[in-house]
Amino acid sequence: MLMQTHEARLDGLRKELARRGLDGFVIPISDEHMSEYVGSYAQRLNWLTGFGGSAGSAAVLQDRAAMFTDGRYTVQVREQVSGALYDYEDVPATSPAKWIAEHAPEGAKIGYDAWLHGIGWAEEAEAAFARKGIELVPVDGNPIDAIWDDRPQASLAAAVPHGDAHAGRSSADKRSEVADWLKQEGYDATVVSALDSVAWLLNMRGSDVDNTPVALSYVLAHADGTAELFIAPDKVTPELTQHLGNAVTVRDRAEFVPALEALDGKRVAVDPNHAVAGIFHALEQGGASVVRTDDPTVLPKAIKNPAEQQGHRDAQSRDGAAVARFLRWLGIEAPKGGVDELAAAAKLLEFREAGGLLKDASFDTISAAAGHAALPHYKVDEDSNIPIPPSSIYLVDSGGQYLDGTTDITRTVWIGPGEPSAEMVERNTRVLKGHIQLDMQKFPDRTTGGALDALARMHLWNGGVDYGHGTGHGVGSFLSVHEGPQRISKPGGAFPGTETPLREGMILSNEPGYYKPGEYGIRIENLVLVVDAGLADSEGKYLGFETLTMVPLDRTLVDRALLSEAEIGWWNDYHTAVYATLAPQLEGDDLAWLEEQCAPL
To answer: Alpha-carbon distance 412 to 435, whole Å?
Structure first.
């Protein structure tokens, strides 16, 4: 019998835990690869609680339960999760481990799925529990799976080759680089478990996860340049087998744990930031010597080669034309009052699909009107959907997945009739000034993202305001829209990667913002490529940014008087480049609109 209500599901979980002799259980949003986006088969937290955000967790005891989310989801979690069933807890002020240590009785056994949690989390929770006489127990099979009768199956879609023309390097070349690193460090093998790392290393893509073109699989890469791919047999085609070649052995995904347990006496490198606790447990139980170190594919994946760089430019050009057509349509239709958030998102997708080359969205579109725009990670659905009010600010953050690149762009626009308030214009102009300041900055090679973050905030700070998210994240090449290791964010914050040195060839977002709760939100986001700054007289190597995103900015929300001559020059140069890039792809009224938007400020 299907459990239809979240109350029944919570009750069912408690009964299953009691049957297993457990007093509690921790439920994250995660899969066996610690992915940002997970397939429907792994949406256990959503099934149990109703929470639809992309980050959060729950802790369930026999007498109480709690939801844990950060400030991005304060409103959403209360809308979607019953306060009668769950306490609302704020991260990082508390955590599931802290909460359980406070509320579980001494001697309690708390279960966790070691294939959904990182090793760091497991060890920290174990230590916190031990001080309270509580035991952390890895479960044999997830108890939610035991009661989720209509749980979807993991995708069996075929994995496909990603051609060298787009990848810019052969898989053999990449495996050779990893093998050289293994030999240099004295390791026998490394586990590659992050799905985008597997995809990059083998030049392989898939459709198993929404928004990210990856295939559910693991790789064991060896110091002799060979590799073993663990993947469901149904996903392997003759084309993939031929593409992988003789040096890659294809094995059933079910053989992964036995293969780890067979590495007795081997020195195996594993990245604790990308590998679940279950991998460490299996290796240690098999007698391997486990070395915790960075995934050797992460940095070379982040440094885009010339083919990937040009692919991004080409993808951004096509994507920019689609977004421009959408913005013109929006400017005509939204002031009439007949467009809601879902309809706008659907129309934008329609414009992207019209080009015939879109593979997927790169994330769920943030289509945010009025007060919803003040929620940086707002996700529209049937319940939250509202009409876009005339005479208001509308924010749209969206992106596409193309064979040659991954896009991510945010535009904030004024929906007429009438004029935006003086405050809206002033705040948007400060955001714009920060965006320009970061875009124009030159900096020494290996400068960290943390060292640059204040540039995007300085004009907001001078006005007594700020924003609560990072300024920039890495972006993949037909891979994850949020890619490490680099990041532009406040030093010492909650985001990893802030201290990663920036290298030529990395791609990042530049997205300062401002959010007035309940009223409006502003964000301006372009993607940028780290390039040689071309400073003839520099002492040492200096880097700068090449702007990749090509879409007009809304001049209605800009106070020219607040801009310096250099900033006005940036605006005009940028829109000259936008026009040159998009004009050959547009015609008629779309082209006339573009010409108007790209006129000098």
So the answer is: 13
pLDDT of residue 1: 53
pLDDT tens profile 442-496: 999 999 999 999 999 999 999 999 998 999 999 999 999 999 999 999 997 666 7
Dihedral over Cα of 20, 24, 30, 32: its sign: negative
Rounded to whole angstroms, the Cα distance separating 475 from 511 reads 13
Helix/strand/coil for 6:
helix
Question: Which pLDDT score is estimated for 379?
Answer: 86
pLDDT computed for residue 494 by the predictor = 61
CATH 3.40.350.10 domain span(s) along the chain: 6-147, 160-301
Residue 588 CA to residue 582 CA, distance in Å, equals 13
Residues contacting 449, CB < 8 A, separation 6+: 471, 472, 486, 487, 488, 489, 497, 498, 499, 500, 502, 508
Torsion sign across C-alpha atoms 170, 176, 181, 182 = positive
Query: Which CATH number is 303-449+503-597 given?
Result: 3.90.230.10
> Does CATH number 3.30.1330.40 belong to domain 6-147?
no
Q: Which two tokens stand for residue 349?
A: 């997708």
CA dihedral 391, 395, 401, 404 (to 10 degrees): 90
Q: What is the pTM of this model?
A: 0.96
What is the enclosing helix (H) or strand (E) of 366? strand 366-369
Residue 129 backbone dihedrals phi, psi, to 5 degrees: -70, -40
Residue span(s) of the chain under CATH 3.90.230.10 come to 303-449+503-597
Rounded to the nearest angstrom, the gap between the alpha carbon of residue 529 and the centroid of all alpha carbons in its chain is 18
| pLDDT of 73 | 84
Structure tokens at 93: 């002020």
| Under 8 Å between Cβ of 214 and 232 | no
Tell me the pLDDT tens digit for each residue of 219-264: 999 999 999 999 999 999 999 999 999 999 999 999 999 999 999 9
Amino acid at 42: A
Residue 495 has a pLDDT of 66
Contact indicator for 158, 241 with CB cutoff of 8 Å = no
Element containing residue 341 per DSSP (H, E) = helix 341-353
Cα–Cα dist 110/17, whole Å? 9
- SS3 of residue 406 by DSSP: strand
8 A C-beta contact, residue 230 and residue 253: yes
What is residue 54's predicted lDDT score, i.e. its pLDDT? 85
Between vectors from CA 110 to CA 105 and to CA 113, what angle results, nearest 5°?
165
Query: Which tokens sit at 205?
Result: 């893509």
**Pairing state of beta strands 542-547 and 526-532?**
antiparallel
Low-confidence ranges of the chain (pLDDT < 50): none
CATH topology of domain 160-301: Creatine Amidinohydrolase; Chain A, domain 1 (3.40.350)
> What is the reported pLDDT for 498?
87
Q: Could you tell me the two tokens for 352?
A: 């992207």
- The CA–CA distances, whole Å, from 141 to 41, 163, 388 equal 14, 38, 46
Q: What is the pLDDT of residue 493?
A: 64
- Per-residue burial over 412-440, b if 16 or more Cβ lie within 10 Å, else e, is bbbbeeeebeeebbbbbbbbbbbbbbbbe
Please name the residues in contact with 350: beta carbons below 8 A apart, sequence gap of 6 or more.
none
Closest CA to 446 of 305, 545, 543: 543
Rounded distance between C-alpha atoms, residue 201 and residue 204, angstroms: 8
